[in-house]
Every structure is written in C-alpha cells, then in structure tokens.
C-alpha cells in the first residue's frame, strides 16, 4: 500500500487533517531512524505529488572528505546542484537502513501522536459543554461502568456516578451530565458522565420546566440522596407564578418526566422562605409538623405527632438528614405535648377499663351469690 493510501485511510477513519497526518508519519519514521542512528543529523520529507517519503542527512561541502557520514565533496555536491559551494550545508539522501525494532518504534510514535491529536480535537469540541446534559446511547457494559456513545465520540459513566436502579442495556438512550472533559484520556476515558449529582437534577428541571429556562423560576438549592430522595428549593421572580405548582404541574405532569429519568426517585419541591422555622417545617415534608423552636443558630427542636415521626425521619434517617442539610440546622424531634398528654389519658382509660373488668363478677357468680 502506498503512503498516500495509508494517509487517506486514516483521514477517512479518524477524521484527521491530511497534512497533519503526513507530518506525524514523517515524525514517526524519523524517530525510527534516530533510534538506530542517534548521532546523525537526519530529517524526513514527504512529497505528496510523488507519494514519496525520503530520509535525508545533512552534510558539509568540503574539498576533501574526512568523515563520510557528515561531509561531501564539492564535486559530488555540484552534481546534485551546481550552485553549491564549499562550506555549504546540504541535505542528501540517507542510505542507511532500519530493522524490525526501529519500525515498531515508528508505529508507537505515530499511534501516540494520533491519539494526542484526537484527544485535542475531543477536548476542543466538548470543553464548552462541560456541566451540560448530553444525550448518548449505551455502547458497552463494563465492570466499572458503562461506555456511552455521543455521536461518534466515546464517553464513560462510572458505577459511582450511576443512580441505583440504572440498567445497562446496549442501544438504550441515556441522559447524563457531562461532568468532566479531560485534556488527555485517563484510563482511556476523556469524557466523564454523571447522573448522581445535584447539578444533573438542576439541569433536568431547567430542561423540563419552561419558566425555569426563562429564569422566571430559579432553583436556589438542592440536596440529594441518589435513588432515594431529593429536596429542591425554588423561588419565583414573578409574583403571579407559584414556583412549586409550576414545577410539579397539574397532576404532577411536569415533574413526572424528571422522576422517570431518575428511576422514580422521590422529589420534594419546596418554596424558599424568609422564616427559618417555616423553612424547616417545609423541609421535613411529607411529615406534618406542629411547631418548630430554634434552640440556637445551629439547632432546632421540632414538635410533631408521634404518627408523623417515622415520616419525618424517613428510610434509614435520610429524610431528616436531607432536611438538616437543606436548612443548615441540626434537627431534634420531640413529641407534641398535647399528643403526649392525650396518649397518657388513653393509657389511663385503658388501665381503668382493665381494672373495671377485673373487678366485675360473672353472671354465674352473681347467680350463686343470690342463691
């Protein structure tokens, strides 16, 4: 195969510039010759018209040659070009040869340079898209994550950035946040994706809620336990727009696509409030809170009915933990005094009923006494 055919094939397969590829191949060949002849002033040129690559050596034009590798006679130099004169430095074809080891070196250099150019092209294409949601297709399921195709470019979604419940199905479309765009591949990966971050959820809201895209509604804060629950604080910049209702939609129609994307992860949408007590009350949803008392700047006691306690705490304590993260306050649950008193009264009534039952005589006993 001619060199031009090799270059053309690489241009079509990799989408690289032809002149750049020619330069890379020349560099690889030079590296191979330099490996065997490290002390010689060699260079490699490529003539595209003739499709010829030539290895040349620089020599000095002298009257009498003392070093055949570095010098050439004036007579021989002028047979190449009549204008050459003594002490001129000229390039002439190099006649030395290389072996298999040097050719392997050439291949390594060429492959390395091509990877560098491809990495640079990917970086320049995607660097401005970092932090945005991209759509790709599952390409391959690997032990430590999922390979994703974004057009013709490879990206990687690590297991640690996957939502519990995410499945690897080859050919399945997937949305993810472009978390990192690396200048050079790390473990063969240059584009790193993420589905677990709060930023991903925020971008989904901006994509699905027109008013948020138009900046009429804004996400102020998100705390999230991927796969379980997220709490999203929103604020409206238009007094006529209810931020929570707008995000949720009638019958949840607006938030349902987001829930589906997150494998039905629960999302509590909360309005930002000036009152910290009210904010804490909302942050503990779905629990119904009776009263919030701020103990100090970082602690609060939350009074609630006993039947709301499990809702406030949530599975493995995650609801109260998220609420604490959201508000920046350590939350301490206390049973509402009224409820506690009521339960005490119920206990007394139950004890009284048991005592009354124990003191009652059976009909048979009454009958015997009458006899």
Kindly describe this structure:
The chain folds into four domains: 3-123, N Utilization Substance Protein A, Chain:P, domain 4; 131-194, Nucleic acid-binding proteins (OB fold (Dihydrolipoamide Acetyltransferase, E2P)), CATH 2.40.50; 197-272, GMP Synthetase, Chain A, domain 3 (2-Layer Sandwich), CATH 3.30.300.20; 338-370. Helices cover 39% and strands 29% of the residues. The protein has 13 helices and 15 strands. The chain has helices at 3-14, 18-36, 74-80, 100-126, 198-208, 210-213, 243-248, 256-261, 276-283, 309-313, 318-327, 337-359, 363-370, and strands spanning 42-47, 52-62, 71-73, 89-93, 133-142, 145-150, 153-158, 173-186, 189-194, 217-225, 229-236, 266-271, 291-296, 299-304, 330-335. Strands 7-6-5-8-9 form a five-stranded antiparallel β-sheet. Strands 1, 2, 3 and 4 form a four-stranded mixed β-sheet that branches.
Strand order of the largest sheet: 7-6-5-8-9
CATH superfamily of the largest domain: NusA, N-terminal domain
What is the N-to-C succession of helices and strands? HHEEEHEHEEEEEHHEEHHEHEEHHEHH
The helix tally amounts to 13
Question: Can you tell me the number of structural domains?
Answer: 4
Q: State the CATH architecture of the largest domain.
A: 2-Layer Sandwich
Helix content: 25-40%
Strand content: 25-35%
**What is the CATH first-level class name of the largest domain?**
Alpha Beta
Give the overall pLDDT as a whole number.
86
Distance between the termini: 125 Å
**Number of DSSP E strands:** 15
Structural class: alpha+beta
CATH names the topology of the largest domain as N Utilization Substance Protein A, Chain:P, domain 4
Could you describe the largest sheet, including whether it forms a barrel?
5 strands, antiparallel
């Amino acid at each position: 195969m001619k060199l031009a055919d090799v270059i053309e094939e690489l241009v079509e397969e990799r989408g690289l510039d032809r002149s750049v590829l020619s330069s890379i191949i020349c560099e690889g060949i030079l590296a191979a010759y330099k490996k065997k002849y490290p002390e010689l002033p060699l260079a490699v040129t490529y003539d595209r018209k003739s499709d010829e690559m030539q290895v040349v050596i620089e020599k000095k034009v002298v009257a009498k040659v003392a070093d055949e590798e570095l010098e050439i006679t004036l007579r021989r130099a002028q047979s190449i070009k009549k204008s050459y004169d003594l002490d001129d430095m000229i390039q002439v074809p190099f006649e030395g040869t290389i072996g298999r080891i040097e050719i392997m070196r050439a291949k390594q250099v060429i492959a390395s340079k091509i990877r560098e150019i491809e990495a640079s092209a990917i970086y320049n294409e995607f660097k401005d898209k970092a932090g945005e949601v991209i759509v790709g297709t599952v390409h391959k399921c690997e032990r430590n994550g999922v390979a994703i195709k974004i057009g013709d470019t490879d990206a990687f979604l690590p297991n640690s950035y996957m939502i519990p419940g995410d499945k690897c199905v080859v050919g399945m479309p997937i949305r993810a946040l472009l978390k990192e765009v690396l200048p050079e591949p790390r473990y063969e990966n240059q584009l790193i994706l993420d589905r677990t971050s709060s930023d991903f959820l925020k971008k989904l809201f901006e994509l699905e809620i027109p008013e948020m895209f138009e900046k009429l509604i804004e996400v102020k804060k998100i705390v999230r336990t991927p796969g379980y629950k997220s709490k999203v604080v929103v604020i409206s910049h238009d007094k006529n727009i209810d931020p929570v209702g707008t995000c949720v939609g009638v019958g949840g129609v607006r938030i349902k696509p987001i829930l589906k994307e997150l494998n039905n992860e629960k999302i509590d949408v909360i309005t930002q409030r000036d009152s910290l007590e009210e904010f804490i009350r909302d942050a503990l949803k779905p629990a119904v809170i009776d009263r919030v008392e701020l103990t100090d700047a970082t602690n609060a006691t939350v009074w609630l009915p006993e039947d709301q306690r499990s809702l406030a705490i949530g599975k493995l304590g995650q609801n109260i933990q998220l609420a604490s993260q959201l508000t920046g306050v350590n939350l301490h649950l206390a049973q509402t005094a009224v409820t506690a008193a009521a339960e005490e009264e119920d206990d007394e009534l139950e004890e009284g009923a048991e005592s009354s039952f124990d003191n009652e005589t059976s009909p048979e006993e009454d009958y015997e006494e009458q006899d």
